[in-house]
């Protein structure tokens, strides 16, 4: 949360008219972020979204699904409750944070495996999310 606040303060300072605290809070509340979080799944499933655990608003969830569909990325909706605490803690700032994951076999081990197909699906989603 401190990182997000410091980034927004720096952006505000670079603007012609710096924003006050209320304007920064409004900016945060109207923003949606896409954040990678380690996840479990079968290789080849594509991008994993887990709306049960990311505490985001339905509008941000719809935006993530619409963006992924428009980009042609395959989406797998997770049904487990395991999710990154980082996504949830950033969501507590008031920003809608959509967490996504890619299936990884043996995460955290020296020889973790990821499918190039899943990596491509994640790249499609990220590219579409960041496109103007």
Can you walk me through this structure?
The protein is of the alpha/beta class. Helices cover 44% and strands 16% of the residues. The chain is built from five helices and six strands; from the N terminus they run ααββαβαβββα. It has helices spanning 2-14, 21-29, 58-71, 85-91, 116-130, and strands spanning 32-36, 47-49, 75-77, 96-101, 104-105, 113-114. A hairpin with a 7-residue loop joins strand 5 (104-105) and strand 6 (113-114). It starts with a helix and ends with a helix. The mean pLDDT is 76.
List its salient traits:
elongated, 132 residues, two-stranded antiparallel ribbon, 4-stranded mixed sheet, single chain, alpha/beta
Write the SSE topology.
Layout lengths: L1 H13 L6 H9 L2 E5 L10 E3 L8 H14 L3 E3 L7 H7 L4 E6 L2 E2 L7 E2 L1 H15 L2
Parallel strand pairs: 1-4, 2-3
Antiparallel strand pairs: 2-4, 5-6
């Amino acid at each position: 949360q401190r990182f997000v606040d410091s980034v927004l303060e720096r952006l505000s300072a670079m603007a012609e008219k710096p924003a006050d605290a209320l304007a920064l809070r409004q900016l945060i509340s109207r923003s949606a972020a896409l954040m990678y979080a380690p996840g479990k799944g079968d290789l080849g499933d594509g991008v994993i979204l887990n709306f049960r655990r990311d505490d985001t608003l339905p509008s941000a969830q719809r935006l993530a699904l619409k963006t992924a569909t428009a980009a042609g990325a395959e989406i797998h909706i997770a049904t487990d409750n395991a999710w990154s605490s980082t996504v949830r803690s950033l969501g507590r700032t008031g920003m809608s944070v959509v967490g996504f994951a890619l299936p990884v076999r043996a995460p955290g081990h020296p020889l973790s495996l990821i499918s190039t197909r899943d990596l491509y699906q994640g790249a499609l989603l990220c590219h579409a999310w960041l496109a103007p």
